[in-house]
Amino acid sequence: MFDMMKMMGKVKEVQEKMKEAQSTLSQIEVEGESGAGLIKATVNGQKKVIKVTIDDSLVNSADKEIVQDLIVAAINKAMEEADLLAKEHIQKQTEGMMPNIPGFDLGNMFNG
């Protein structure tokens, strides 16, 4: 019985460390570019697009900021929908295989 309580304590410790690690993912930023730098995208560690930059040569400068913000919003909306559908798919595929444990989200295991 003592080993089981010790193990549960470790599980709780791991869960807390995972939450802490996940909360700091928003501080990681990576930039990707295409078209020899004409388009740049900045993404954080939570796979959220933070910023899109379009070179002035590609778009009217008066509309540039609006276009960039709309692109960011569209990409993030698509990512959220994809995440939701992926979780639903995993739940359907694993239905009945695992007990329903409150707070245990199997879908997070597959979100790299």
Task: Summarize the structure in words.
- It is a single chain.
- With 112 residues, the protein is α+β, with helices and mostly antiparallel strands.
- The protein has helices at 2-23, 61-93, and strands at 29-34, 39-44, 49-54.
- The chain has a 3-stranded antiparallel sheet with strand order 1-2-3.
- A hairpin with a 4-residue loop joins strand 1 and strand 2 (39-44).
Features:
alpha+beta; 3 strands; 112 residues; elongated
Q: What's the story with the biggest beta sheet?
A: 3 strands, antiparallel
Measured by DSSP, the beta-strand proportion falls in 15-25%
Run of helices and strands: HEEEH
Number of helices: 2
Number of strands: 3
* Radius of gyration, CA atoms, in whole angstroms: 20 Å
Roughly what percent helix? 40-55%
SSE arrangement:
Elements: H1 2-23, E1 29-34, E2 39-44, E3 49-54, H2 61-93
Task: Give a summary of the structure in a few sentences.
The chain has two helices and three strands, in the order H-E-E-E-H.
